[in-house]
Amino acid sequence: MIKIVSRCLVLFAAIAFSLTGAFAQDFPTQPIRIIVPYTAGGSSDFVARTVGAKMQENIGRPVVVENRPGGNAIIGTELVAKARPDGYTLLLGGSSVLSANPALYKNLSYDSLRDFAPIAKAVDSPIVAVINPKLPINSIKELIAYAKANPGKLNYGSAGVGNTLHLAAEMFCMVTGTKMTHIPYKGASQALTDLLGGSIQVMFDLPQTPMSNIQAGRLKALGITGGKRLPVLPDVPTMAEAGVPEYSFFTWIGFAAPANTPPAIVDRLNKEILKTLSQPAVKDSFAQKAMVVNPTESPEAFKKFIKEEIERLRKLIQTADIKPEG
Q1: Which has the higher per-residue pLDDT, 140 or 23?
Q2: How confident is the model over 61-80, as a mean pLDDT?
Q3: Buried b / exposed e across 48-82, counting CB within 10 Å, b at 16+?
Q4: 125 φ, ψ to 5°?
Q5: How many angstroms separate the CA atoms of 106 and 232, rounded?
Q6: Do 267 and 302 have their domain in common?
Q7: For residue 14, is it within any domain?
Q8: pLDDT tens digits along 204-219
Q9: SS3 for 129?
Q10: Does some domain include residue 313?
Protein backbone atom coordinates (compact mmCIF):
# COMPACT_ATOMS: atom_id res chain seq x y z
CA MET A 1 0.00 0.00 0.00
CA ILE A 2 2.82 2.39 0.95
CA LYS A 3 4.60 1.62 -2.31
CA ILE A 4 1.43 2.35 -4.30
CA VAL A 5 0.96 5.71 -2.54
CA SER A 6 4.60 6.60 -3.12
CA ARG A 7 4.32 5.75 -6.79
CA CYS A 8 1.17 7.88 -7.05
CA LEU A 9 2.92 10.82 -5.44
CA VAL A 10 5.86 10.49 -7.83
CA LEU A 11 3.41 10.26 -10.76
CA PHE A 12 1.49 13.34 -9.61
CA ALA A 13 4.74 15.27 -9.17
CA ALA A 14 5.86 14.28 -12.66
CA ILE A 15 2.52 15.36 -14.13
CA ALA A 16 2.66 18.69 -12.27
CA PHE A 17 6.23 19.28 -13.45
CA SER A 18 5.21 18.42 -17.02
CA LEU A 19 2.26 20.82 -16.92
CA THR A 20 4.41 23.59 -15.48
CA GLY A 21 6.99 23.04 -18.19
CA ALA A 22 4.34 23.14 -20.88
CA PHE A 23 2.91 26.33 -19.37
CA ALA A 24 6.38 27.87 -19.41
CA GLN A 25 6.78 27.04 -23.08
CA ASP A 26 3.55 28.90 -23.87
CA PHE A 27 4.38 31.78 -21.53
CA PRO A 28 3.60 34.62 -21.96
CA THR A 29 0.11 34.65 -23.40
CA GLN A 30 -0.87 38.07 -22.04
CA PRO A 31 0.77 41.43 -21.21
CA ILE A 32 3.50 41.56 -18.56
CA ARG A 33 3.50 44.39 -16.00
CA ILE A 34 6.73 45.75 -14.55
CA ILE A 35 6.04 47.65 -11.35
CA VAL A 36 8.52 50.43 -10.61
CA PRO A 37 8.15 51.66 -6.99
CA TYR A 38 9.41 55.13 -7.94
CA THR A 39 8.18 58.08 -9.98
CA ALA A 40 8.72 58.17 -13.74
CA GLY A 41 11.96 59.57 -15.11
CA GLY A 42 14.45 58.11 -12.64
CA SER A 43 17.13 55.46 -13.04
CA SER A 44 14.88 52.53 -12.11
CA ASP A 45 12.20 53.75 -14.48
CA PHE A 46 14.76 54.02 -17.29
CA VAL A 47 15.94 50.43 -16.71
CA ALA A 48 12.37 49.11 -16.66
CA ARG A 49 11.38 50.90 -19.86
CA THR A 50 14.60 50.04 -21.72
CA VAL A 51 14.45 46.34 -20.86
CA GLY A 52 10.65 46.20 -21.20
CA ALA A 53 10.67 47.68 -24.71
CA LYS A 54 13.24 45.16 -25.97
CA MET A 55 11.55 42.25 -24.21
CA GLN A 56 8.31 43.19 -25.91
CA GLU A 57 10.02 42.96 -29.28
CA ASN A 58 11.50 39.56 -28.42
CA ILE A 59 8.46 37.84 -26.91
CA GLY A 60 5.78 39.44 -29.07
CA ARG A 61 3.62 40.44 -26.10
CA PRO A 62 3.11 43.88 -24.49
CA VAL A 63 5.38 44.72 -21.57
CA VAL A 64 3.87 47.60 -19.61
CA VAL A 65 5.70 49.71 -17.03
CA GLU A 66 3.65 51.03 -14.10
CA ASN A 67 5.04 53.56 -11.63
CA ARG A 68 3.77 53.02 -8.06
CA PRO A 69 5.87 55.35 -5.88
CA GLY A 70 5.46 56.09 -2.18
CA GLY A 71 6.51 55.02 1.29
CA ASN A 72 10.23 54.82 0.53
CA ALA A 73 9.36 52.43 -2.35
CA ILE A 74 7.43 50.13 -0.02
CA ILE A 75 4.00 50.68 -1.63
CA GLY A 76 4.91 49.41 -5.10
CA THR A 77 7.08 46.63 -3.72
CA GLU A 78 4.31 45.35 -1.48
CA LEU A 79 1.92 45.36 -4.44
CA VAL A 80 4.13 42.86 -6.28
CA ALA A 81 4.65 40.75 -3.15
CA LYS A 82 0.87 40.24 -2.97
CA ALA A 83 0.33 39.77 -6.72
CA ARG A 84 -0.66 36.46 -8.32
CA PRO A 85 2.50 34.37 -8.81
CA ASP A 86 2.01 33.73 -12.52
CA GLY A 87 4.89 35.71 -14.02
CA TYR A 88 2.74 38.54 -15.32
CA THR A 89 3.51 41.04 -12.53
CA LEU A 90 7.19 41.79 -11.95
CA LEU A 91 9.10 44.11 -9.64
CA LEU A 92 11.86 46.40 -10.81
CA GLY A 93 13.77 46.52 -7.54
CA GLY A 94 17.23 47.56 -6.49
CA SER A 95 19.55 48.21 -3.60
CA SER A 96 17.08 50.32 -1.61
CA VAL A 97 14.05 48.08 -2.14
CA LEU A 98 15.51 44.60 -1.79
CA SER A 99 18.51 45.12 0.50
CA ALA A 100 18.52 48.50 2.30
CA ASN A 101 14.85 48.54 3.38
CA PRO A 102 15.01 45.00 4.88
CA ALA A 103 18.16 46.04 6.73
CA LEU A 104 16.62 49.33 7.92
CA TYR A 105 13.03 48.50 8.92
CA LYS A 106 12.31 46.01 11.70
CA ASN A 107 8.62 45.63 10.81
CA LEU A 108 8.76 45.82 7.03
CA SER A 109 5.58 44.66 5.29
CA TYR A 110 7.53 42.39 2.94
CA ASP A 111 10.51 40.06 3.12
CA SER A 112 12.90 40.24 0.17
CA LEU A 113 13.84 36.57 0.38
CA ARG A 114 10.51 35.08 1.47
CA ASP A 115 8.04 37.12 -0.60
CA PHE A 116 9.88 37.27 -3.93
CA ALA A 117 11.35 34.98 -6.54
CA PRO A 118 14.48 36.80 -7.74
CA ILE A 119 14.89 36.66 -11.52
CA ALA A 120 18.05 38.56 -12.48
CA LYS A 121 20.21 41.49 -11.47
CA ALA A 122 20.44 43.77 -14.50
CA VAL A 123 22.75 46.74 -13.99
CA ASP A 124 25.15 48.32 -11.54
CA SER A 125 25.60 52.04 -11.08
CA PRO A 126 28.65 53.66 -9.47
CA ILE A 127 28.47 56.58 -7.06
CA VAL A 128 29.94 60.02 -7.77
CA ALA A 129 30.94 62.54 -5.10
CA VAL A 130 29.81 66.02 -6.18
CA ILE A 131 30.10 69.39 -4.48
CA ASN A 132 28.90 72.95 -4.92
CA PRO A 133 31.75 74.71 -6.80
CA LYS A 134 31.78 77.56 -4.28
CA LEU A 135 33.53 75.24 -1.83
CA PRO A 136 37.31 75.79 -1.79
CA ILE A 137 37.83 72.12 -2.68
CA ASN A 138 39.21 70.52 -5.84
CA SER A 139 39.82 66.88 -4.93
CA ILE A 140 38.69 64.03 -2.69
CA LYS A 141 41.76 64.50 -0.51
CA GLU A 142 40.87 68.17 -0.05
CA LEU A 143 37.28 67.20 0.79
CA ILE A 144 38.53 64.82 3.47
CA ALA A 145 40.90 67.45 4.89
CA TYR A 146 38.15 70.11 4.92
CA ALA A 147 35.66 67.78 6.59
CA LYS A 148 38.18 66.81 9.27
CA ALA A 149 39.02 70.46 9.93
CA ASN A 150 35.30 71.36 10.08
CA PRO A 151 33.55 68.32 11.59
CA GLY A 152 29.78 68.35 10.98
CA LYS A 153 29.81 71.68 9.13
CA LEU A 154 29.49 70.21 5.64
CA ASN A 155 25.90 69.25 4.81
CA TYR A 156 25.28 66.41 2.39
CA GLY A 157 21.91 65.56 0.87
CA SER A 158 20.31 62.27 -0.08
CA ALA A 159 17.00 60.87 -1.30
CA GLY A 160 15.94 59.98 2.24
CA VAL A 161 16.98 58.24 5.45
CA GLY A 162 18.35 54.78 4.71
CA ASN A 163 18.33 55.37 0.97
CA THR A 164 21.42 53.94 -0.73
CA LEU A 165 22.70 57.47 -1.44
CA HIS A 166 22.58 58.13 2.30
CA LEU A 167 24.38 54.84 2.94
CA ALA A 168 27.01 55.63 0.31
CA ALA A 169 27.84 58.91 2.07
CA GLU A 170 27.91 57.27 5.50
CA MET A 171 30.30 54.62 4.25
CA PHE A 172 32.56 57.35 2.85
CA CYS A 173 32.58 59.08 6.24
CA MET A 174 33.37 55.81 8.02
CA VAL A 175 36.18 54.89 5.63
CA THR A 176 37.78 58.35 5.74
CA GLY A 177 37.17 59.15 9.40
CA THR A 178 35.18 62.28 8.60
CA LYS A 179 31.91 63.69 9.89
CA MET A 180 29.32 65.47 7.74
CA THR A 181 25.68 66.31 8.49
CA HIS A 182 22.98 64.40 6.64
CA ILE A 183 20.04 66.36 5.17
CA PRO A 184 17.36 63.93 3.90
CA TYR A 185 15.01 64.85 1.04
CA LYS A 186 12.01 63.17 -0.56
CA GLY A 187 14.03 62.53 -3.70
CA ALA A 188 17.47 63.01 -5.22
CA SER A 189 16.21 65.75 -7.57
CA GLN A 190 15.18 67.91 -4.59
CA ALA A 191 18.57 67.42 -2.98
CA LEU A 192 20.26 68.29 -6.26
CA THR A 193 18.32 71.58 -6.44
CA ASP A 194 19.59 72.57 -2.99
CA LEU A 195 23.12 71.47 -3.88
CA LEU A 196 23.03 73.82 -6.88
CA GLY A 197 21.66 76.59 -4.67
CA GLY A 198 24.23 76.06 -1.94
CA SER A 199 21.89 75.01 0.89
CA ILE A 200 23.86 71.77 1.03
CA GLN A 201 27.44 71.40 -0.11
CA VAL A 202 27.95 67.71 -0.92
CA MET A 203 26.13 64.76 -2.49
CA PHE A 204 27.02 61.15 -3.15
CA ASP A 205 24.77 60.40 -6.07
CA LEU A 206 24.17 58.23 -9.11
CA PRO A 207 26.09 59.94 -11.94
CA GLN A 208 23.07 60.27 -14.23
CA THR A 209 21.30 62.65 -11.83
CA PRO A 210 23.92 65.45 -11.66
CA MET A 211 25.66 64.60 -14.96
CA SER A 212 24.42 67.52 -17.05
CA ASN A 213 25.28 69.96 -14.26
CA ILE A 214 28.75 68.45 -13.91
CA GLN A 215 29.33 68.72 -17.65
CA ALA A 216 28.11 72.34 -17.62
CA GLY A 217 30.39 73.28 -14.72
CA ARG A 218 27.53 74.03 -12.32
CA LEU A 219 28.71 71.22 -10.04
CA LYS A 220 32.16 69.81 -9.37
CA ALA A 221 32.69 66.01 -9.42
CA LEU A 222 35.58 64.86 -7.26
CA GLY A 223 35.61 61.10 -7.68
CA ILE A 224 33.64 58.06 -8.78
CA THR A 225 33.47 54.52 -7.44
CA GLY A 226 34.48 51.64 -9.69
CA GLY A 227 37.59 50.26 -11.29
CA LYS A 228 37.69 52.65 -14.24
CA ARG A 229 36.52 56.09 -15.30
CA LEU A 230 33.17 56.54 -16.99
CA PRO A 231 33.21 57.36 -20.71
CA VAL A 232 30.51 59.99 -20.10
CA LEU A 233 32.62 61.65 -17.35
CA PRO A 234 36.19 61.00 -18.53
CA ASP A 235 37.75 63.76 -16.42
CA VAL A 236 36.38 62.44 -13.10
CA PRO A 237 38.95 60.18 -11.38
CA THR A 238 38.11 56.90 -9.74
CA MET A 239 38.22 56.83 -5.95
CA ALA A 240 41.43 54.81 -6.17
CA GLU A 241 42.99 57.45 -8.41
CA ALA A 242 41.71 60.12 -6.01
CA GLY A 243 43.52 58.47 -3.09
CA VAL A 244 40.72 56.46 -1.43
CA PRO A 245 40.97 52.95 -2.94
CA GLU A 246 39.25 51.41 0.09
CA TYR A 247 35.99 53.26 -0.60
CA SER A 248 33.69 51.22 -2.81
CA PHE A 249 29.92 51.51 -3.11
CA PHE A 250 27.58 50.55 -5.95
CA THR A 251 23.84 50.55 -6.37
CA TRP A 252 22.18 47.88 -8.46
CA ILE A 253 18.83 47.20 -10.14
CA GLY A 254 17.18 43.88 -10.94
CA PHE A 255 13.93 42.03 -11.54
CA ALA A 256 11.87 39.81 -9.25
CA ALA A 257 8.51 38.03 -9.34
CA PRO A 258 6.15 37.17 -6.47
CA ALA A 259 7.14 34.15 -4.39
CA ASN A 260 5.81 30.80 -5.61
CA THR A 261 6.01 31.82 -9.24
CA PRO A 262 6.71 28.48 -11.02
CA PRO A 263 10.47 27.97 -11.41
CA ALA A 264 10.04 27.27 -15.11
CA ILE A 265 8.43 30.71 -15.54
CA VAL A 266 11.20 32.37 -13.52
CA ASP A 267 13.79 30.64 -15.68
CA ARG A 268 12.02 31.76 -18.86
CA LEU A 269 11.94 35.36 -17.63
CA ASN A 270 15.60 35.13 -16.64
CA LYS A 271 16.56 33.98 -20.13
CA GLU A 272 14.51 36.75 -21.78
CA ILE A 273 16.01 39.45 -19.56
CA LEU A 274 19.58 38.21 -20.09
CA LYS A 275 18.95 38.02 -23.84
CA THR A 276 17.78 41.62 -23.77
CA LEU A 277 20.72 42.82 -21.69
CA SER A 278 23.21 41.19 -24.08
CA GLN A 279 22.13 43.38 -27.00
CA PRO A 280 24.76 46.05 -27.88
CA ALA A 281 22.12 48.78 -28.26
CA VAL A 282 20.84 48.10 -24.74
CA LYS A 283 24.34 48.13 -23.26
CA ASP A 284 25.06 51.41 -25.01
CA SER A 285 21.82 52.95 -23.71
CA PHE A 286 22.84 52.12 -20.16
CA ALA A 287 26.43 53.29 -20.69
CA GLN A 288 25.11 56.70 -21.73
CA LYS A 289 23.33 56.84 -18.35
CA ALA A 290 26.50 55.78 -16.48
CA MET A 291 25.12 52.31 -15.76
CA VAL A 292 26.94 49.04 -16.37
CA VAL A 293 25.17 45.87 -17.53
CA ASN A 294 26.23 43.23 -14.99
CA PRO A 295 23.60 40.47 -14.72
CA THR A 296 23.70 37.54 -12.32
CA GLU A 297 24.06 34.16 -13.99
CA SER A 298 20.89 32.63 -12.58
CA PRO A 299 17.89 33.31 -10.31
CA GLU A 300 19.67 31.36 -7.56
CA ALA A 301 22.77 33.53 -7.89
CA PHE A 302 20.63 36.68 -7.66
CA LYS A 303 18.93 35.42 -4.50
CA LYS A 304 22.33 34.70 -2.93
CA PHE A 305 23.50 38.18 -3.92
CA ILE A 306 20.45 39.85 -2.33
CA LYS A 307 21.00 37.94 0.91
CA GLU A 308 24.65 39.05 1.04
CA GLU A 309 23.67 42.65 0.31
CA ILE A 310 21.12 42.69 3.14
CA GLU A 311 23.77 41.55 5.59
CA ARG A 312 26.36 44.02 4.28
CA LEU A 313 24.00 46.99 4.56
CA ARG A 314 22.64 45.84 7.92
CA LYS A 315 26.15 46.04 9.36
CA LEU A 316 26.63 49.51 7.88
CA ILE A 317 23.27 50.74 9.19
CA GLN A 318 23.99 49.40 12.68
CA THR A 319 27.50 50.84 12.77
CA ALA A 320 26.30 54.26 11.57
CA ASP A 321 23.28 54.05 13.94
CA ILE A 322 20.83 54.96 11.18
CA LYS A 323 17.19 54.97 12.25
CA PRO A 324 14.20 55.04 9.87
CA GLU A 325 12.01 58.16 9.83
CA GLY A 326 8.61 58.05 11.48
Answers
A1: 140
A2: 93
A3: bbbbbebbbeebeeebebebbbeebbbebbbbbbe
A4: -135, 125
A5: 39
A6: yes
A7: no
A8: 999 999 999 999 999 9
A9: strand
A10: yes
